[in-house]
Amino acid sequence: MFKKPFKTQQQSLLKNSDKRKLRDSIIRNFPKLKEDDVNLVMPQKEDVTMQKVAGTHMCLYISNGNPIFFDLDSKGDFFPTVYTLWKLPHMMEVITVQRPVLKYILSG
């Protein structure tokens, strides 16, 4: 699947203040989410780790052993993982595409 092996650099446990900043940033970036929604994927009492990907600026945030969000350029632009979207499907807008347009979208 990948040309080169997927490697991670370092893994660090987030402090409570960093977890609070992460939560606030996620709620600010995804206005449909409430505090209870964020608690589903990132419980307040659980540890959250940040893992960097070797050779990039990408950071992956992990809670309970599940990847929950990633940041491609370490600038605070968080994207949900498939796991998070599965747990919180209402966090993003739904776009309906008409059938004639669908073939162009699928072909790229």
Structure, described:
The chain is α+β, with helices and mostly antiparallel strands. It is 33% helix and 24% strand. The protein has helices at residues 16-29, 35-41, 82-87, 99-107; strands at residues 8-13, 48-53, 59-63, 66-71, 78-80. It has a five-stranded antiparallel sheet with strand order 1-2-3-4-5. Strand 2 (48-53) and strand 3 (59-63) form a beta hairpin. The radius of gyration is 16 Å and the shape is globular. The two termini are 19 Å apart. The model has no long low-confidence stretch (mean pLDDT 87).
Brief digest:
Helix content is 33%, strand content 24%. It is of the alpha+beta class and 108 residues long. The chain has a five-stranded antiparallel β-sheet.
Structural class assignment: alpha+beta
What is the CA-atom radius of gyration, in angstroms? 16 Å
Q: Write out the strand line-up for the largest beta sheet, numbering strands in chain order.
A: 1-2-3-4-5
Stretches where pLDDT is under 50 for at least 5 consecutive residues are: none
Sheet having the most strands: 5 strands, antiparallel
How many distinct beta strands? 5
Distance between the termini: 19 Å
How much is the average pLDDT? 87
Name the beta content range: 15-25%
Spell the H/E element sequence.
EHHEEEEHH
- Assembly state here? single chain
Q: Please, how many helices?
A: 4
Q: Into which percent range does the helicity of residues fall? A: 25-40%
Shape: globular
